[in-house]
Amino acid sequence: MTQNHGNQDQGAQGPQPKPGVLRIHAYVGGAAQTKSGKPAVKLSSNENPLGASPAAKAAYETAARSLPIYPEGSARILREAIAEAEGLDPARIVCGAGSDDILALLAKAYSGEGDEVIHTRHGFSVYPIAALTAGAEPIMADETDLRADVDKILDLCTPRTKLVFLANPNNPTGTYLSIKEMARLRAELPPQVLLVVDEAYAEFAEAGDFGSALKTVETREDLVVTRTFSKIHGLAGLRVGWGYMPLAVADALHRIRGPFNTSIPAQMAGAAAIRDRAHIEASRNHVLRWRSWLAQALGGIGIEATPSQANFLLLRFDPEGPRSAPAADAWLQERGLILRRMEGYGLPDRLRLSIGREEDNRAVVEALAQFMTENHQ
Ligand SMILES: *Cc1c(COP(=O)(O)O)cnc(C)c1O
Questions:
Q1: Cis, peptide link before residue 172, omega less than 30° from 0
Q2: Theoretical Cys-Cys bridge with 271: which of 26, 81, 90, 237, CB 3.0 to 4.6 Å?
Q3: Which residues have CB under 6 Å of ligand 1?
Q4: Which of 27, 44, 47, 99 to mutate to test the pocket of ligand 1 (most atoms within 8 A of CB)?
Q5: What are phi and psi of 227, to 5 degrees?
Q6: Ligand 1 pocket check: which of 95, 126, 166, 309 to mutate, most ligand atoms within 8 Å of Cβ?
Q7: Range 90-109 average pLDDT
Q8: Whose Cα sits closest to atom 2 in ligand 1?
Q9: For the domain bounded by 29-50+279-374, which CATH number is listed?
Q10: What residue ranges do the domains of the chain occupy?
Q11: Collapsing DSSP states into helix, strand and coil, what is residue 145?
């Protein structure tokens, strides 16, 4: 008998994933432990340093009673809570297991073999994964100064373009497009293109010319906005997100989504979280206050942070040598501080720092100040 395990022949004859799947680089999340395994402060995944709302935790505990029961599949109680909190139409809301679920469903419903899906160079890495999973070709639009560039996106459009994924504000850069730029992008995209604006960080934006595209969705057939409970609401572990979309798009997603893609605990805790205005305000104020404190303190020790409208800062280090990003990462890890490496985003000289609790933010600045003094060229 021939041994066939893992050899080329079996690869050719055995079950094969469809084209595209093996081109996917699996998503790598933020590290939670230092290399030494010492207890650490995780500032690598843009989580809420204040945690979840007490009301959401209570709702989650109450949901334990419903564990043997199937959820209501359309997440009606959650859609109605979101609609009330945001002044939206519940029929246009589709909920999912995180907004990642909604992004994947959009790619599957609106693109396939032979189609193109545009994302920006330093856009969220889930977009090309969603496109390839759907069988479509991800197309990368260049940015200008780490910002999405409307003209560069428009230049790449062809009759095959079916989707444009754009995060606003963007992760990992923290940069954003103004209401005006976003309106021009939508107006000038070809009519067959569905524009998906990922507003995972919209609650943290304070720029005067930033605006959510949520209400514009009600006036168009070709625009979707996604939101998440993972960031401002502090429910990343629960996996719950939503999209706001034309009724025809909602209809398409309802046909292909998992029939129970939001659990009862997710629906109940999400509904409680979005009603807890005080916790949302406190979370936003905390991020805004410490984001500007950190940017200024880091600037003072010679570390440039890209101006950010999100709950993180992208920090710049030397391209190589003793003050490189990997050297800073190792230095911080030795002190129990975990930031996000950016090689996977094509930014090897950067680290992304999520805004943490006061003591964590101060610890990062203190550690980096030492790093900068002790590591001269
Ligand atoms: C964190 C993040 C999300 C949210 O993902 P979930 O699946 O809802 O946890 C979506 N888009 C971007 C750009 C993000 O950074």
A1: yes
A2: 81
A3: 46, 98-100, 124, 167, 171, 198, 200, 228, 230-231, 236, 241
A4: 99
A5: -135, 165
A6: 126
A7: 98
A8: 200
A9: 3.90.1150.10
A10: 29-50+279-374, 54-276
A11: coil
Our measurement of the distance from residue 61's CA atom to the centroid of its chain's CA atoms, rounded to an integer in Å, reads 27
Asked if residue 200 lies in contact with residue 99, where contact means CB atoms within 8 angstroms, the answer is yes
Joined together, the tokens standing for residue 220 give 């168009």
Tell me how far the alpha carbon of residue 121 lies from the centroid of ligand 1, in angstroms. 17
Q: Evaluate whether the domain defined by 54-276 bears CATH number 3.40.640.10.
A: yes
> Counting atoms of ligand 1 from 1, which one is nearest the CA of 100?
7
Phi, psi of 302 (to 5 degrees): 90, 20
Q: Which among 354, 341, 89, 108 is positioned nearest to 230, based on CA atoms?
A: 354
Strand order in the sheet with 350-354: 305-306, 312-316, 350-354, 340-341
Is the entire prediction scored with pTM above 0.90? yes
Give tens-digit pLDDT for 100-156: 999 999 999 999 999 999 999 999 999 999 999 999 999 999 999 999 999 999 999
Q: CB–CB of 194/249 below 8 Å?
A: yes
Ligand 1 atom at shortest distance from the alpha carbon of 198: 11
The number of the ligand 1 atom at minimal distance from the alpha carbon of 240 is 8
CA of 13 to the centre of ligand 1 (A): 38
As a whole number of angstroms, the distance between CA 19 and CA 59 comes to 43
**C-alpha–C-alpha distance, residues 203 and 189, integer Å:** 26
CA of 329 to the centre of ligand 1 (A): 23
